[in-house]
């Protein structure tokens, strides 16, 4: 059987956790940070777990994760 190609864009954005869920970075954390409150930026630091409904699509893009 041929190997399946990994979607490189998805590989850079998502990581699989030990429990099989997918971890991602938060949106709205890269630039124009001066107008965002400290509390808002602090809450964007933590891990972002992908919703169960989207996990199947990501798993298909990352066959060997």
Description:
This protein has 65 residues and is α+β, with helices and mostly antiparallel strands. It is 34% helix and 12% strand. It contains three helices and three strands. The protein has a three-stranded antiparallel sheet with strand order 1-2-3. A hairpin with a 5-residue loop joins strand 1 and strand 2. The protein starts with 7 loop residues before the first helix and ends with a helix. The mean pLDDT is 96.
User: What fraction of the residues are assigned to beta strands by DSSP?
Assistant: 5-15%
Biggest sheet record: 3 strands, antiparallel
Helical fraction equals 25-40%
Helix/strand order: HEEHEH
Give start-end ranges of low-pLDDT stretches.
none
Number of DSSP-assigned strands? 3
Strand numbers in spatial order across the main sheet? 1-2-3
How large is the radius of gyration? 15 Å
What class, by secondary structure content?
A: alpha+beta
Q: How many H/I helices?
A: 3
Which shape, going by the Cα principal axes? elongated
């Amino acid at each position: 059987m041929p190997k399946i190609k990994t979607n490189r864009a998805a590989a850079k954005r998502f990581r699989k956790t030990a429990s099989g869920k997918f971890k991602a970075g938060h949106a709205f954390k890269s630039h124009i940070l001066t107008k965002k409150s400290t509390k808002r930026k602090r809450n964007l630091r933590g891990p972002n777990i992908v919703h169960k409904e989207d996990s199947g699509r990501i798993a298909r893009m990352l066959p060997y994760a």
